[in-house]
Specification:
Layout lengths: L2 H16 L2 E4 L2 E4 L1 E4 L2 E13 L2 E10 L6 H6 L4 E7 L3 E2 H14 L3 H21 L1 E2 L4 E7 L3 E6 L2 E7 L2 H12 L6 H7 L5
Antiparallel strand pairs: 1-2, 3-4, 4-5, 5-6, 6-9, 7-8, 9-10, 10-11
């Protein structure tokens, strides 16, 4: 008669194991990840569509969950944006899309302070060349050094300094002018 409790334990373990990751368009995002000495939690994940095409799946990792855009933008400490392409993209497509929404979410005076670093990011992104389907791109923020870009597990370019620069990147998806409101909601952990 002890079989039922044992089966129940296996069933519960199976449920908790499957709850450790979030699936978006076939891409799995772990509930927790490490960045340097810090543990980050998945704040939310969603998919970016462009017209009728799936462009990328995206997860946002923070030290703790935050459910408002203003809260995320004001947050401190290490953070991670993880993108996984859902179709073949060129580096130019990626760079142009990122930079377009940095510009849409900042005044001319703000952009003047960011321009050199925006160009550094553009150069790093263009150096990727192509981003075939399932390419993993990470934009990590490390407080001691700045924004670090990874393609797969390989760092691309030098770190880009300044927390204000990483906040500018977050505004692409969480600012006033975003490419897709449903993605903003998903990154904030809101069910649509």
């Amino acid at each position: 008669m002890r079989l039922k409790p044992l089966l129940l334990q296996f069933a519960l373990f199976g449920l908790s194991a499957s709850a450790l990751a979030m699936d978006v368009a076939g891409v799995s995002f772990d509930e927790k990840t490490r960045l340097g000495d810090s543990e980050l939690v998945l704040n939310g994940a969603g998919m970016r569509n462009k017209l009728v095409f799936k462009a990328y799946a995206m997860g946002l990792y923070l030290p703790q969950k935050i459910d408002t855009a203003a809260g995320v933008l004001a947050s401190k400490g290490p953070r991670r944006i993880q993108l996984v392409t859902l179709r073949d993209l060129t580096a130019e497509q990626l760079a142009d899309a990122l930079i377009e929404f940095v510009h849409k979410n900042h005044s001319a005076a703000e952009l003047e302070k960011l321009n050199a670093r925006i160009e550094t990011l553009r150069s790093i992104m263009l150096g990727i060349g192509k981003a075939p389907e399932k390419t993993r791109i990470r934009l990590d923020y490390l407080p001691a050094s700045g924004t670090r870009v990874y393609v797969g597990n390989e760092q691309k370019g030098a770190d880009i300094p300044g927390e204000d620069f990483y906040t500018a990147l977050l505004k692409i998806w969480l600012g006033e002018h975003v490419p897709q409101e449903s993605l903003r909601d998903a990154l904030l952990g809101r069910k649509g």
